[in-house]
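Try this one yourself first.
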């Protein structure tokens, strides 16, 4: 691998929200390798879902890349009372071995990677809040610049990497900072009830990740959408009793 030098000395592949989707993860990692990118980060929610938590954990532990813990990773480690009976959580827990849980437990909620990048799953303060999206009763919209600056007042690095809402976004702040959400490797759409019922949709079932690269004229961001065997992932979700996931996986719509 000699391509990752010179002009692109600070080139990083950004993954988030893999959600146990080993079929999507394998295709993303192959694409990153094909491009000669050697620096990868992972923004969390790596294992939760009716797919292949164990296989995904094995790959990620072997990769050993800068990784933060997402809200659904936290739920695996410390289930809140109202979720402790969830069949999907039981499926995940049954599939994981102690070493996989120990890896999850070793992750911090935020971290700094490769000199330029601040990593969080949701916001710097909360792993279960969207940074870039505001959910109100009437729908979802891009959070206002002033609120973003407040959320990021403690972050001094030029590039903030966040996930959690599964929708790719690149947002530029007036002070020159950049916020990049790569979308989701493993789950292109979903619905949630909090804080108000809403749907998050990428619009296609492709596996998503981003590449952030420092160039002479500023930070360059590429959003990648890769075809993968989403039918296989959907079959697994159906087998595990989640027809809703199967539809989200196959269509990228919710
Ligand atoms: Mn999340």
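Now uncover the answer:
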């Amino acid at each position: 691998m000699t391509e990752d030098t010179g002009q692109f000395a600070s080139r990083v592949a950004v993954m988030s929200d893999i959600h146990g989707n080993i079929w999507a993860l394998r295709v993303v990692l192959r694409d990153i390798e094909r491009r000669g990118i050697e620096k990868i980060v992972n923004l969390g929610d790596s294992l939760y879902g009716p797919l292949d938590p164990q296989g995904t954990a094995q790959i990620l532990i072997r990769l050993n890349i800068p990784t933060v813990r997402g809200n659904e990773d936290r739920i695996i480690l410390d289930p809140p009372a109202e979720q402790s009976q969830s069949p999907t959580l039981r499926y995940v827990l049954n599939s994981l071995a102690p070493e996989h849980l120990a890896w999850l437990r070793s992750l911090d909620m935020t971290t700094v990677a490769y000199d330029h990048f601040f990593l969080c799953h949701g916001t710097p303060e909360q792993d279960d809040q969207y940074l870039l999206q505001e959910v109100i009763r009437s729908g979802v919209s891009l959070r206002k610049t002033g609120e973003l600056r407040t959320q990021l007042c403690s972050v001094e690095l030029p590039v903030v990497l966040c996930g959690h809402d599964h929708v790719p976004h690149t947002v530029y702040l007036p002070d020159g900072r950049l916020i990049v959400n790569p979308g989701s490797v493993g789950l292109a759409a979903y619905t949630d009830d909090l804080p108000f019922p809403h749907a998050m949709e990428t619009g296609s079932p492709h596996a998503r990740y981003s590449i952030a690269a420092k160039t002479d004229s500023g930070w360059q961001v590429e959003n990648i959408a890769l075809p993968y065997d989403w039918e296989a992932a959907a079959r697994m979700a159906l087998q595990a009793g989640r027809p809703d996931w199967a539809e989200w996986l196959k269509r990228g719509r919710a």
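Discussion: The longest strand covers residues 207-215. The CA atoms of residues 50 and 240 lie 6 Å apart.
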